[in-house]
Structure formats: C-alpha cells, structure tokens
Amino acid sequence: xxxxxxxxxxIGTELALxxxxxxxxxLMYLCDVDDDNARKLKERLRDVKITSIGDLITNSDLIIxxxxxxxxxxxxxxxxxxxxxxxxxxxxxxxxxxxxxxxxKGCRIHIPxxxxxxxxxxxxxxxxxxxxxxxxxxxxxxLRDCPHIIKNNIDLKEIKTKRTIFEGNLKEAIEGFPKNINxxxxxxxxxxxxxxxxxxxxxxxxxxxxxxxxxxxxxGTITSKTENLPSKNPKTSYLAIxxxxxxxxxxxx
Length: 253
Ligand SMILES: NC(=O)c1ccc[n+]([C@@H]2O[C@H](COP(=O)([O-])OP(=O)(O)OC[C@H]3O[C@@H](n4cnc5c(N)ncnc54)[C@H](O)[C@@H]3O)[C@@H](O)[C@H]2O)c1
Description:
Radius of gyration: 18 Å
Bound molecules: nicotinamide-adenine-dinucleotide
Structural class: alpha/beta
Helix content: 25-40%
Oligomer: single chain
Number of strands: 11
Strand order of the largest sheet: 3-2-1-4-5-6
C-alpha cells in the first residue's frame, strides 16, 4: 500500500518514522507547506519523495493528514477518492465540511480516538444519548494564542489556580480553540450528539492534558478520563499519536 503523509510536523514525523520501522506499509510521499519541515523529515527516511498535495492524494492508497483543518477541506473536495484509505488527525476539518464529508462514498476514512478514551462505547450508544459533557483541563502553555484567549483579553499569567476559561457548544469551542479541540470534534463525530457541552479549564499546576467525558442516556452513564502527557509539541498529547499508530497497525497491507 502506497502511503503519503500531509504535514511533516510533530505527528507526521512520528508516524513516518513508525511506518518505516514498525509496519509493512510503503511510505512514498511527503508534503508540507513549510519546505524545511518536509526536507528535514525526508532526511530521516528511506526513499521518500516530496510532492504537492494534489499529486500525493492522487498517487497514494493511504493518505495521512497530520497538517491542519484546511488540509482536510482539500482532501474531502478531491474528486476521486475511490478505494482510498484516509486517516484524519485534524477532525475539526471534518466538522467544518460536514456536507462534503457526508457525500463521500467508496473510500474509508479512519478517525483515531486521539487523546480520549471510551469512543467504542460512545459510538455504540449514539442515538440514545441525553447528555454529553467534555471537560478539558490544560496547562497554561497549551492555551497560548487561542482566539478565545485573545478575544476575551484573558491574561494567562494571572491564572494562579485552576480556572474555567470557556463553556459552550462545539461550534463555539472550534471558533475559540481551532487548533486544540480536535477531541471535541472527534467526540461529536462518534456520538452524533448535537447538544454536547464543552468546558475548558486552565490549570497552571497540571503537566498533563486532561479530558473527562460524561455521557448519559437510556443505557446508563459512561465516564471516561485521560491524563495525557504532551508529545514534543505541548499542544499535542502523546496518546493522540499512539492512537493513530494503532490504526496504522490495523490497516492490512
Ligand atoms: N485528533 C486529535 O486528537 C489530534 C491531536 C493532536 C493534534 N491534532 C491535529 O493534528 C494536526 C497536526 O498536529 P501536529 O502536532 O503534528 O502539528 P505541527 O504543528 O507539529 O505540524 C503540522 C505540520 O503541518 C504543516 N501544514 C500546515 N498546514 C498545511 C497545509 N495546508 N498543507 C501541508 N502542510 C501543512 C505545517 O507546516 C507543519 O509542518 C493539527 O491540525 C492538530 O490540531 C489532532
């Protein structure tokens, strides 16, 4: 299976090295808007080619998106995705292009569980949920430069103890935290529950990205909690990378 990776940053790099070391998949193409990132990763790999996003999509059997929500739009709008496998990390990009996503046929889209746990159960109870809450607690450095922080003049340096800095729905969470609330997008894609409530807490004392899900309905209550150590990128939990690796292990070559 010919593999192409879009996005040669933190996740793309870890997945590329993993593919060549631990799987029989044939990593052939890389692409990144930042030429340096693509070049640096190429130097650490065997026999890969840097290419354009269009050529990568056309020539790969398995497309790995580890770039940005805008890249997801480009992939979903590609006319011929027939029989391709696509792994999407920037799940916010799916939410923002739901119309196109729902129309796609004939290819397999893999959505890793990312930094949360219990999505198998949440998927199973989809349609029977009466309330769903995601509470995300992050270290201060993981929240810098988010639009919600800037818009509301929140001085992160002033936060000395745990503080709720956001409460709202999925749309508001995506607007306020467009790069670091993929967990909420993934949770929606699996639960299909439109009234999900999201709370974001800034905690100057925590070293982990924590996600607590409480899901209630006719089945009872599902509670799941992860305390994630960050990867090399403080905004990305290591578990998110491991969950994508697990999908790659499961894809039969
Ligand atoms: N699903 C999850 O649970 C989860 C968890 C963590 C991160 N993410 C998402 O995964 C993506 C990658 O995360 P990361 O930690 O590797 O980020 P990163 O910033 O380390 O790397 C992203 C790379 O993609 C490149 N890029 C950006 N836009 C591009 C485009 N349009 N075309 C080609 N390349 C482009 C950047 O230049 C960079 O090299 C982000 O969108 C992030 O929000 C998802």
